[in-house]
Amino acid sequence: MEGEQLNGIQLNEFLIGYLKKRGFNSAAKGLEEDLHHNKGSDNNVSSFTSIDYHNDPELTKLIRSFSQSEDDPTRYRECYSKLRSWAYNSLDLYKHELLRVMYPVFIHCYMDLVGKGHTQEARVFFNSFRKDHEMIHLRDLQKLEGVLAPSHLEEMEFARSLRKSKVNIKICQYSYDLLLQYLHRTESTLMLGIINEHINFQVYSGQPTSASDDIEAVTIVGSFQDTANHINQKEIQWGLLEDSLEDRLEKTGGLLSDFEKGQGESKDGDADDSKKRSTEIGKQGSSIKKLKKDKAGNATAKVARLETSTVPPAPRVKSELALPVMSTDVEQSILEDLRNRVQLSSVAMPSVSFYTFVNSHNGLNCASISHDGSLVSGGFSDSSIKIWDMAKIGQAGALQGEDDTNDPNVGPTGRRSYTLLLGHSGPVYSANFSPPGDFVLSSSADTTIRLWSTKLNSNLVCYKGHNYPVWDVQFSPFGHYFASCSHDRTARIWTMDQIQPLRIMAGHLSDVDCVQWHPNCNYIATGSSDKTVRLWDVQTGECVRIFIGHRSMVLSLAMSPDGRYMASGDEDGTIMMWDLSTARCITPLMGHNSCVWSLSYSGEGSLLASGSADCTVKLWDVTSSTKLTKAEEKNGNSNRLRSLRTFPTKSTPVQALRFSRRNLLFAAGAISKPAS
Amino acid sequence: MVTKESIEVIAQSIGVSTLSPEVSAALAPDVDYRVREIMQEAIKCMRHARRTTLMAHDVDSALHFRNLEPTSGSKSIRLKRAPEHRDLYFFDEKDVELKNVMEAPLPTTPPHVSIATHWLAIDGIQPSIPQNSPLQAISDLKRSEYKEDGLPARQVLSKELQVYFDKVTEWALTLSGSTLFRRALSSLKTDPGLHPLAPFFTSFIAEEIVRNMDNYSTLLALMGLARSLLHNPHVHIEPYLHQLMPSIITCLIAKHLGRRLSDNHWDLRNFTAGTVASTCKRFGHVYHNLLPRVTRSLLHTFLDPTKALPQHYGAIQGMVALGLNMVRFLLLPNLGPYLQLLLPEMVPEKQKDEVKRHGAWLVYGALMVAAGRCLYERLKTSQTLLSPPTRSVWKTNGKLTNPRQSKRKASSDNLTHQPPLKKLAGEGIMQMSSTQMQMHGTIVGLSAATQQTHVGRDIAPRTSATSGTNIDSYLCPLFEYFGESMLMFTPKHELSFFL
């Protein structure tokens, strides 16, 4: 009895100590007071509080281990390596699921150690197990590596969000049981604590999924994930605008079809002529080939139309913005272009015209191509913007004589061939044409956005509002409105006639790197360094979708013309296709091995073109992906999108891509010397 | 990683002499963190400038974001990676003579930025024009070759390629030692688009080797040419290999390479051995009979006592380069009989000719290196297995010297009686051919699995399992053949292990 009582007192001390360490001061005080009270009133020390754990030896053990382990930094390493070797030695079938648990445990062990000020131990711990996670989480590890003091944990956004949130891990019932058994058996309360605190298991019954196919198995955004799920419940109207030009064309299409064919052929002839003029590669047979292709194209177009008739047409929505009125000239030219659009599919490939910047000396930060491909702009690190009128250059070349047009310096040597726009006071990060090509918007590290007129060749407006470098600016599909995004973690909506922003979209956890408008103008999408893409309602300024799945900074975005899908490209070379309504990734497109700078959908949305720092342009068949997903819904198979073509350039990273309305693909990049 | 010590050094360099250890210990991780933070921002700048290399002004603008003063306006300087360190870089600064700078002509103005247009693809097909990547053209070429096999593919060489070929071949014959030719070799080794020249170079090498057997420097140049051609990843050399290999083998085991005494044909043989080995490694899996054929010709040369010593040397070096397994299976079993032939050549009393004696010593050295490496590998794979016997050998080494000398005498006796020698050699060959058969089988069996890349190292454990005892029995007498000096060829710490 005596021993037991002593034990009880010890236990009380342990418990109070533990509570204090954990910061539950009031609880500790309350317990102390209770104990005193008991002592005073009752001689028998076995108070009601201690009775509970007298009778439960498991609990006493647990509490004792808590109080022991608390201040011993080597325990982390010990426990983690035990857990690790257990996971590696577990059954093959369940191993990959158990290994998924290791990464969150690892980073939280590390952050625990840092948080308690054991810098040296933290570093040793980190370095000894770093290799395990390098393959998948290299970038995160590089970020975390620098965190060496408790203050850094507070300061760094990434670490803070990790600390605050839980990790969702999908795990099958049996693996979950295995893990719990192990943790209880070995009394590794430290690990148990971390797992309880930071991991949220989504246990499902049945067999474990295979290792590779489930990319959503681990999502490192826990509570954030919940908000994301919540946000993604919101309704969005992804349909196209009613009474769009395409609609009008469809309606009149039947009447015009004959006219269209005739027109199309004559246009093709024209196009061939211009090809011959601009480059020397016009072969004799090409026009004949072209005609054949055209027939094939028409045939496939018919097939495509049949298919589209089976697929329910995109719903129509009203614009929530007051859209500018289009002048009849512009409207006519767009209609003309739409009529002459070449139908593309996996069998009818587009032609790619490449604009190579020469002598840029690594100074070209961004390039942009107007809708008809006639204007090309470049933003340079010396804060200048240069605009080339390719139509004029073509004419000059034609005047000079047809023989030497393949001279790489198209501009005559004496006189420069571009229009120089000066005004920014920092590197220009984006320069974007308005849809008709009469304005250029540019954003710069000097935190301003400037509007330039290509007719007057001068600066019209300077928009100030961002506090940090503006990474990207994009005109809305109908002009007048534009969206910008910046290092200050916001995206903003502006109109051309006001110098203040109309909306500020805040919510990203890191830089907003790229922005893109939805075809119906009611939404914008932003890609960020926090590895997410968000969709924002322009009218309300609310975030309506969060797309989670990228493993590195998102660099480029594109919206499918039907408004249903979005593609995003990241720093690692992964492209992801998203379904806007469900916020799910349809499929990742793997193939590039470096940054994807640019993405573009073809006019009718059947092909996706991607341009990358690995000096290639790739074409992807995206119709098959959408079809496959329907098949997938039926039989539950995973699908992989196919890459149709890869066009390597001559050591020229592809910085910009655009499909013209007639489905000619333009690409641009600055030639760089291969690294030796 | 910023350490406490580096903080102290930095503090001293800026004039803070009294920095308490606690302060530096606390500063170190913070400095580390800040540097990483700046770099993170700098990388963002780099990405937004659509680059994949970080430049000095990226860091400057990152500092600018933080309202920090940018580091002095250093232009982007290429950092060099320190050899053998993964994360260590340094400035490769050169001394600049002020006078030269003053007298240098003014640089020309940089050309304007301009845009060139071309068709990257027409209806999804890439036209083969100079503006497009030449790799595509090569794959097209390959395809055409595969299609019309049997028929001589008629190819029109572009003018540039013709000039290239003419120049390179001219230099090979006339300027073989010059830096110009060395540059040409490195171009030949790396440039894409040289594939159409492959047949021309092959026949050029084959012809010129026959013509220039007396001309050492030309032979060396031709071998360099062959090696560069074989190493170029863009040249599809396989179809011409059958034409190229005999020329190369010739340079390895020919009787005379060069005419003058000063010609160091041993070097040429070493160089060629490397080429042969790398070729076998690269194309061994495509041509299954390549390795066996090369091995056979080398072995025949080695085992033929009528062949000159330089030829033997070439054969030995060739086999050594092909991997230790070759040595183990083909050289070691024949070492005893061979040394009986060789040793008399090495002593001044028996062999009066200075040059031949030198040659014999070189052959002896090559054999010793081969055997030493073999032994070392063996010891590495199973230290426990071999250490006791070697130790005993080591201990009784004093005794062993005598038998060795007596053996030498015996062998010299043998030399005087010709018939027994021939018989011995004949036996050796018999024994050899059986091993060769066995070897052949092993290689064919294993080629699929290991692609014959590291024949020696990879297969070592397995072969030792299958025919280990057989091999070990050859390894042990090595000490008898070479004596103490054998141990010179096993690395030092292994030596200390024995002591």
TrEMBL record, chain A:
<keyword id="KW-0804">Transcription</keyword>
<dbReference type="InterPro" id="IPR037264">
    <property type="entry name" value="TFIID_NTD2_sf"/>
</dbReference>
<dbReference type="InterPro" id="IPR036322">
    <property type="entry name" value="WD40_repeat_dom_sf"/>
</dbReference>
<feature type="region of interest" description="Disordered">
    <location>
        <begin position="256"/>
        <end position="311"/>
    </location>
</feature>
<keyword id="KW-0805">Transcription regulation</keyword>
<feature type="domain" description="TFIID subunit TAF5 NTD2">
    <location>
        <begin position="70"/>
        <end position="199"/>
    </location>
</feature>
<dbReference type="InterPro" id="IPR020472">
    <property type="entry name" value="WD40_PAC1"/>
</dbReference>
<dbReference type="InterPro" id="IPR001680">
    <property type="entry name" value="WD40_rpt"/>
</dbReference>
<feature type="repeat" description="WD">
    <location>
        <begin position="589"/>
        <end position="630"/>
    </location>
</feature>
<protein>
    <recommendedName>
        <fullName>Transcription initiation factor TFIID subunit 5</fullName>
    </recommendedName>
</protein>
<keyword id="KW-0677">Repeat</keyword>
<keyword id="KW-0853">WD repeat</keyword>
<dbReference type="InterPro" id="IPR015943">
    <property type="entry name" value="WD40/YVTN_repeat-like_dom_sf"/>
</dbReference>
<feature type="compositionally biased region" description="Basic and acidic residues">
    <location>
        <begin position="258"/>
        <end position="280"/>
    </location>
</feature>
<dbReference type="Pfam" id="PF00400">
    <property type="entry name" value="WD40"/>
</dbReference>
<dbReference type="Pfam" id="PF04494">
    <property type="entry name" value="TFIID_NTD2"/>
</dbReference>
<keyword id="KW-0539">Nucleus</keyword>
<dbReference type="GO" id="GO:0005634">
    <property type="term" value="C:nucleus"/>
</dbReference>
<feature type="repeat" description="WD">
    <location>
        <begin position="463"/>
        <end position="504"/>
    </location>
</feature>
<feature type="repeat" description="WD">
    <location>
        <begin position="547"/>
        <end position="588"/>
    </location>
</feature>
<dbReference type="InterPro" id="IPR019775">
    <property type="entry name" value="WD40_repeat_CS"/>
</dbReference>
<feature type="repeat" description="WD">
    <location>
        <begin position="421"/>
        <end position="453"/>
    </location>
</feature>
From TrEMBL, chain B:
<dbReference type="InterPro" id="IPR016024">
    <property type="entry name" value="ARM-type_fold"/>
</dbReference>
<feature type="region of interest" description="Disordered">
    <location>
        <begin position="388"/>
        <end position="420"/>
    </location>
</feature>
<dbReference type="InterPro" id="IPR011442">
    <property type="entry name" value="TAF6_C"/>
</dbReference>
<feature type="domain" description="TATA box binding protein associated factor (TAF) histone-like fold">
    <location>
        <begin position="1"/>
        <end position="66"/>
    </location>
</feature>
<keyword id="KW-0805">Transcription regulation</keyword>
<dbReference type="InterPro" id="IPR004823">
    <property type="entry name" value="TAF_TATA-bd_Histone-like_dom"/>
</dbReference>
<comment type="similarity">
    <text>Belongs to the TAF6 family.</text>
</comment>
<dbReference type="Pfam" id="PF07571">
    <property type="entry name" value="TAF6_C"/>
</dbReference>
<keyword id="KW-0539">Nucleus</keyword>
<dbReference type="InterPro" id="IPR037796">
    <property type="entry name" value="TAF6"/>
</dbReference>
<protein>
    <submittedName>
        <fullName>Transcription initiation factor TFIID subunit 6b</fullName>
    </submittedName>
</protein>
<dbReference type="InterPro" id="IPR009072">
    <property type="entry name" value="Histone-fold"/>
</dbReference>
<keyword id="KW-0804">Transcription</keyword>
<dbReference type="GO" id="GO:0005634">
    <property type="term" value="C:nucleus"/>
</dbReference>
<dbReference type="Pfam" id="PF02969">
    <property type="entry name" value="TAF"/>
</dbReference>
<feature type="compositionally biased region" description="Polar residues">
    <location>
        <begin position="388"/>
        <end position="404"/>
    </location>
</feature>
<dbReference type="InterPro" id="IPR046344">
    <property type="entry name" value="TAF6_C_sf"/>
</dbReference>
